[in-house]
Amino acid sequence: MKRMLVGSLFMAISGGAFAAPVISDAWIPEQPPGAMANAVFLNMINQTDKPEALVKAEAPGFKLVQLHKSIEVNGMHKMIEQKEIVVPAHGETRLAPGGYHIMLIQPEKRLQAGDSLPVTLTFADGSHETITVPVKKRPAMPGMMKH
Description:
The protein is mostly beta strands. 10% of the residues lie in helices and 50% in strands.
């Protein structure tokens, strides 16, 4: 019995346990007045030998939260809902403007710089993590003139 318990503990420590990707650089751009959607951007690093996938995100104060990818089709930008966002084994996936992101739809209130939002991430292996995401001013777009 003791040997089986020690073996189970070793498997959990050596990678048999769930290991969600490491999350960093999470942020939400300040929401323009009247906007009906916003996005969460972040970086996910997978330190395991197997691919991992973000399969769900939840945030209070929004009617709907979805995983999306921005693409360009015939010069038009479209957002396509994703069932999952994969993080390769020993790799990283960045959720950033113009690519993958977590879409926050129909807010109860406007998010402004200085606010923060708890966002719960659920991964395909069953693990989940709640992170506190700061709301920041949008960076200036390249080529924009300041007056």
